[in-house]
Amino acid sequence: MNPSVFARSAIRSRALARPIRESVYHWENVDGSHLPFSTKSKVGLAIKMTLYLGTGFSLPFISAWWQFHKAGKPFFRTGPPPE
C-alpha cells in the first residue's frame, strides 16, 4: 500500500480527536434571532413580504408591458377580437 494513506489517516484521526473549540461568534438561542428582519409585528412582516414577493412576481409582467409599449402595440385589446 501507499505509505501516504497511513500518514493521512493518522493526521485525520488526530484532527478528529481534538476538542471542538467554541466559535468566536455568539448567537442567543431565541426565536427569530437568526433572521435578518424582525418577526415581532405580524402586520409589518406581512406587508414587507407582500412587497418583496409581489415585486418579484410583477417584474415579468411589467417588462412585457414595457416591451409592448416601446413597440407601439397595445398590451391588451378591449372590445371584440379582430376578424
TrEMBL record:
Keywords: Membrane, Mitochondrion, Mitochondrion inner membrane, Transit peptide, Transmembrane, Transmembrane helix. One of its GO terms (biological process) is mitochondrial electron transport, cytochrome c to oxygen. One of its GO terms (cellular component) is mitochondrial inner membrane. Pathway: Energy metabolism; oxidative phosphorylation. It is a single-pass membrane protein. It is found in: Mitochondrion inner membrane. The chain crosses the membrane at residues 49-68. The keyword Transmembrane applies. PANTHER family: CYTOCHROME C OXIDASE SUBUNIT 7C, MITOCHONDRIAL, CYTOCHROME C OXIDASE SUBUNIT VIIC. Belongs to the cytochrome c oxidase VIIc family. Component of the cytochrome c oxidase, the last enzyme in the mitochondrial electron transport chain which drives oxidative phosphorylation. The respiratory chain contains 3 multisubunit complexes succinate dehydrogenase (complex II, CII), ubiquinol-cytochrome c oxidoreductase (cytochrome b-c1 complex, complex III, CIII) and cytochrome c oxidase (complex IV, CIV), that cooperate to transfer electrons derived from NADH and succinate to molecular oxygen, creating an electrochemical gradient over the inner membrane that drives transmembrane transport and the ATP synthase. Component of the cytochrome c oxidase (complex IV, CIV), a multisubunit enzyme composed of a catalytic core of 3 subunits and several supernumerary subunits. The complex exists as a monomer or a dimer and forms supercomplexes (SCs) in the inner mitochondrial membrane with ubiquinol-cytochrome c oxidoreductase (cytochrome b-c1 complex, complex III, CIII). This is Cytochrome c oxidase subunit 8, mitochondrial. It comes from Funneliformis geosporum.
